[in-house]
Amino acid sequence: MNQTQSEPSKNRNPQDTCTTMVRDSINQFIAAYRRGATDFSDFSSISTRLLYNFHDPPLVNVWFYSAITFQAAKFTVQDPLERVLVAKDLFKQLVSFGDWYCTTSALKRIALLAPVVYELHNLAYEKRHLEGEIESVLEKVVSYSSIFCGCGGKGGEDDGGLNSCFLDTIRVWMVDRLGVGDELEAFFPIASDEVRKGMVKMGCGMSYIAGVVMCEALLLRLCLKFGLGNSRVELEKDVHNLAFQTMNGFQSFYFFDILFSMLLEPALPVTHLLNSGDEFILRKVLHDVVMAVDYSFLKFNTVIRALPGDLLKDLAVKWLLVAENAIWFARKYDDQAKVISYINIFSESFLSSQLLEWITNQTGMEGKIFSSDVSNPVPFISELLWYLYVFNCR
């Protein structure tokens, strides 16, 4: 009988045991914080042990440790500028964890940075007139992400994403903000509702979290440009140049998949940061830039080529719809130069050719199967979408 009773503990997964310890520690920390405690040394010791139990610790273990040290540091600062410096120190700490522990996943290094973007967003939202200082830290996030977003790992890219402790760990970062409601919405404030639903639907793997972090960093950095008081012409030029430079550096399937999804929604998830006129300018610029980006990296990147074929097909469909919106947008405002430019880009795009190749393979027909000309994109897109519908492509 004793042997039977001991069997479950013998076979217990160490990961499950650690998850239970993390959750219990989180609940105790939140209770202590709300009682007014300011000494978190005991929790620092616990989170350190949880960190060193693994050669490559789960993301939630790293976040729990970092959140404890971050909340303790915030007690010592009053000036908003000092909060930016605390966020900068947090970035350095999470980068160092990536160097020490993320031996199997380049994208995990990027996913770890979500709390940095969260805190920088809070500072920007409070309008403390620290755009330059916040942008400086965001630039580091973007540069770091550009280095690792196209790198492959040795496996386990999606291990340790949205496990049962994920939302609990987020609560530690937001312990000083009562009544925030939806934790996922509060922690990823520049992701759309559909993207957050996708996080849950896809199990919030490391790749997806990294894509969300990159999108949020880009959008927040672009939003900060609107607070610098430049003329509209200078503003559009600056935002366009920064967006183009950043997107060309973010050679990540998940980044573009998430960005395209956001561009297909009625409004960008930045309306709490920008007025309607500025959101219009940003949307216009983003449409222009996503049409101009070179997507050939999707063909040559070995990591992306290893993804299931349906994922690349779905990305191409989203780009097709974004391209249709961009052309409609340019025609609505009678920008013929843009219309011609978009038509040329569309006809030569790698993503368009991918869809054509897929449909040709599905039909078993070679040669011309479309009645519309690719150089006339509006009817061509309609016909392409019809074929995709017939062959059950989302």
Question: If you had to describe this structure to a student in words, what would you say it looks like?
Answer:
The N and C termini lie far apart (55 Å). Helix 7 packs antiparallel against helix 8. Mean pLDDT is 82; it is low at 1-14 and 153-157. The protein contains 21 helices and no strands. The longest helix is centred in the last third of the chain and has 24 residues, at 309-332. The chain is mainly α and 394 residues long.
Portion in helices: over 70%
- Number of domains in the coordinates? 2
Find the structural class using helix and strand composition: mainly alpha
* Poorly predicted runs of 5 or more residues: 1-14, 153-157
SS element count, helices:
21
Strand elements, count: 0
What is the terminal-to-terminal distance? 55 Å
Largest sheet: none
- Strand percent estimate: under 5%
Question: Overall mean pLDDT score?
Answer: 82
Q: Compute the gyration radius: what is it?
A: 23 Å
Structure summarized in a few sentences:
The chain contains 21 helices and no strands. The chain has helices at 2-11, 14-34, 41-52, 59-74, 80-101, 106-111, 114-125, 131-148, 166-173, 183-187, 193-201, 206-225, 232-249, 253-263, 276-292, 297-300, 302-305, 309-332, 336-348, 350-363, 377-390.
